[in-house]
Each structure stands twice: as structure tokens, then as C-alpha cells.
Amino acid sequence: MRIVPNLWFDTEALEAAEFYCSVFPDARITRITRYGDGARRPAGEVLTVTFELAGTAVTAINGGPEFTFDEAFSLCAECDDQAELDRVWDALTDGGEEGVCGWCTDRYGLSWQVVPAGLLERLAAGNAAESGAVQAVIETMSRLDVAALEAAFAGARTGDGGGGVSG
User: Fold this and answer.
1) Which end of the chain is more exposed for a tag (fewer CB within 10 A), N or C?
2) What residues have CB less than 8 Å from 127, skipping those under 6 apart?
3) What is the DSSP letter of 82?
């Protein structure tokens, strides 16, 4: 079995899939289906687009304007380093909005968390002082700063509070 996120768009499913595939390496569109005769939209218009992002299948559907995205659902991009995090953040916020704590909303209204790879594991593995120090630093940021997060981890271990924060 597998779980496939299904994203509801009004008419932008193909445009959004192409955009997401341009942002993430090793992404590709794998299938496009179209409305047939007698459907709720004209025959030939895009119904669904299935694409892969980092090995995860995602389906986008052009279902109409009845439903829109909100922050209750997001996709998380775990980035290998600051350069990748910056590139993904810049692409997703181009035409979208920056949020807090590494969250942003793209031009289609979909919420994203753009974080350094391993962040959640480090928070879970750390002691309360480390986790608290890092969480406090994250709460001061919009785009996450890997060096500041590392300094917070290190500072909590040595008891100096983690130093300065940028954001």
C-alpha cells in the first residue's frame, strides 16, 4: 500500500505540477488525465496530474473552486543544506507568502515547511534544554537559518544559550 497526497485546484493542476517539478530535483510528471465527453468540464481539459517529488507520488486535480488550501495541510521539504533551503524557499515564496518558523505559502495557496534535513530527529533526540533552545530560535525566524539552529543546539549543550540568531 502507499498513501498519495491529492491536491485540489480550480484549474491550475498542470501549471502547479510543472512548477513543483521545476523547484525540486528528480521530480517528474508521470500521468495526465483529461475530462471526457459529458463531464462537468469541457472534454479534453486536464482532470488530474500525477507527479513525483523526491520519490513521493502526488496527484493534483482540477476539481473547481469549491475548495481551497489552508494551513491545516502542508508539505515538508527537508533540505540538505542552507543553499538548498534558500533555493527552495525563494522558489516557493515567489508569488506566495513567507510565514513563520520555516512555513510559507506558495503562489497556489499550498502551505510548505522548508526545514533542514534531520531537524525533527535532532529535536526528538536532544534533551529538553537543546529542544527548547532550538524551538526558541525557530520561533524568531521566517526562513530557517541552519547555522543559527546549529549554534542553538551547540549552545544548549555547553550552556551558553546558543549565541546570536539571524532571521
Assistant:
1) N
2) 156
3) H
C-alpha cell at 12: 491550475
Q: Which 3 state secondary structure label does DSSP give 114? A: strand
Model confidence, pTM: 0.89
Q: Which residues of 106-130 are buried (b: 16+ CB within 10 A; e: fewer)?
A: bbbbbbbbbbbeebeebbeebeeeb
Instruction: Give the Å distances, CA to CA, from 36 to 26, 44, 45.
Output: 31, 6, 8
- What are phi and psi for residue 133, nearest 5 degrees? -65, -45
pLDDT in tens, 67-83: 999 999 999 999 999 99
Listed in sequence order, the DSSP H helices in the chain are 13-23, 82-93, 119-125, 128-138, 146-158
Here the cell at position 153 is: 543546539
Going from the N-terminus, what domains does the chain have, and what CATH number goes with each? Answer: 1-67 (3.30.720.100), 69-162 (3.10.180.10)
Q: How far apart are the first and last CA of the chain?
A: 40
